[in-house]
Amino acid sequence: MTDPITALRARRVWDSRGVPTVEIELTAASGARGRGIAPAGASTGRREALELRDGGDVLGGRDVSMAVRLAEEIVAPALVGLDVRDQEAIDDILARLDSVDESPRGRPVGGNTTTAASLAALHAAAASRGVPAWAVLDPSPHAIPRPQIQILGGGAHAAHRTAVQDFMVMPLSAVTIQDAFLHVAEVYRTVGEVLAGRGPRRGVADEGGHWPEVSGTEDALDVLIEGIERAGLEPGVDMAISLDIAATQFAGPDGYHVQGRTLRTAEWIAELHRLCEKYPIATLEDPAGEDDLEGMQLAVANTGERTTVVGDDFLVTDAHRIAFSAGEQAVDAVLIKVNQVGTVTGAARAVAAARAHHLGVIVSARSGESEDVSVAHLAVGWGADIVKVGSITRGERTAKWNELIRIDDALGGLGLAATVRPIAGKQA
Ligand code: PEP
Ligand code: MG
Prior knowledge:
This protein is α/β, with parallel strands linked by helices. It folds into 2 domains: 5-130, Enolase-like, domain 1; 146-424, Enolase-like C-terminal domain (TIM Barrel), CATH 3.20.20. The chain contains 14 helices and 14 strands. The protein has helices spanning 65-79, 87-97, 111-129, 133-137, 177-196, 217-230, 265-278, 293-302, 319-327, 338-341, 344-356, 374-381, 395-410, 424-427; strands at residues 5-14, 20-28, 33-37, 146-153, 166-171, 239-244, 251-252, 255-258, 261-263, 281-285, 308-311, 333-336, 360-364, 386-388. The strands form 3 sheets. Strands 4-5-6-10-11-12-13-14 form an 8-stranded mixed beta barrel, surrounded by 6 helices. Helix 1 packs across helix 2 (87-97), helix 1 crosses helix 3 and helix 2 packs antiparallel against helix 3 (111-129). The chain starts with a strand and ends with a helix. 57% of the residues are buried. The structure holds phosphoenolpyruvate and magnesium ion (MG). Magnesium ion binds at residues 244, 246, 285-286, 312, 335.
């Protein structure tokens, strides 16, 4: 049965940083409806799908009135009549509308517009079939992705208080999602106590992690270890550390600018290698900048078996870059963000490319988020190893974690996925 799209409505809504973003709602002939809200990154890769923002003085140039208008004037007529259950056909049109060559008036509609429309189509298709969104992607998932949760926020998410962007933990010994969150919530609390013992606390960073009152990367890692131990958990056994270095943010033509020093690629990766030896770091995301292939390769070659090197800005959810990077042994796992590529289908192709090359898969939210819970459904439906949506505080984060708990409940309590699948780089 087909269920043609009958209407598209677009509107300006607000994200977790008080910045406008695009929401799109699709309706199909059956009456099924679906909504999607585009998230937004702060530490974006230069190869990501470009958001369409108004520019000018209002709201720092970040308003989306043009994107909303183009959604109704260009995207709506292009999608009306298509089968809402045919995600590939819808996403193919959306990708064309976001290209200079193929969009009417030569005006790309923006990756924020296509992301909102593509997510709306997924949810409308789910409503049309009478199933949850994850079931559209996989009717019988085997596991719940393991959560990777921010405890301290840094980098572009905390006014560059630390060079490193995300200090996260990942429960290892927890078998269920409920246990995982119990462990993480304890660590969030105990790390808060450790920081309180050092002086006044300064609130939270963009993704809800504690604002890092630390002297540098190693101090932050010591705080995490102290918090994990205070929670009665064993670092590396019950709880691993995950870092998103987001190195593009402090990479320059002359090297990496860290804590007043400039390090050449080999020196910087050696520094990270030393940290991976000293601390139980399970995943290391974007250790090198988005154009530093050699840095990524060195990281894969130098970090030991227990550390998985993840590509985010380096891969931008692009199936071709993933295949290339796998061949070059530049990553062990890929970060998947729908709005980096602009459509659910584009991201699904990136997941398929990762699996074809035996790379791990981490499905991720962005630092600018909303109550949209699509990422929880995508992570389960794509069979991700890990899911990353920020910290365990702030409503836009807990919306997703709580949805993951509901999905697990609906599936009768699946266990958590193994930490990460066999990974190509480390096997070679
Ligand atoms: C990330 O870098 O993985 C991240 C979630 O941050 P942002 O959305 O700012 O890119
Ligand atoms: Mg990242």
